[in-house]
Specification:
Layout: H1 2-17, H2 26-36, H3 40-48, E1 51-52, E2 62-69, H4 81-99, E3 104-107, E4 112-118
Parallel strand pairs: 1-3
Antiparallel strand pairs: 2-4, 3-4
Helix pairs in contact: 2-4
Length: about 120
Amino acid sequence: MRKPLLMIAIAIAIASTSCTLTTFVEKDLSMNYELRMTSKNEKALFEKIPIYLTEKEVPKEFVVKSINVYSPIVLPVIGDRKKAVIASLYKKAVKAADDQKGNAVLIIDDSHFKVLKFK
């Protein structure tokens, strides 16, 4: 009797979390990112690697080094996906750009970002 209930619960959890697209307000993202910076290294990275939300904002010609996915594990019963992503999307994107020796980050949507290298 427990196996069918467990299977149904898992199916509901998967169905409620798959393929969601969330839009964010830039002010919320940057404010959360700035509040979460804890060390001088993080502050230096934030100043060194700019973050853009549209390609029109990028001031120079660029080459896309990589397209990355950030998808935190969020249980729908415990928390909201938008809050979890807002909490650390900028931080993960800037660290990825630094690791890949990129010059900037372009946020595509709630879980994808591009690492850019200026020409």
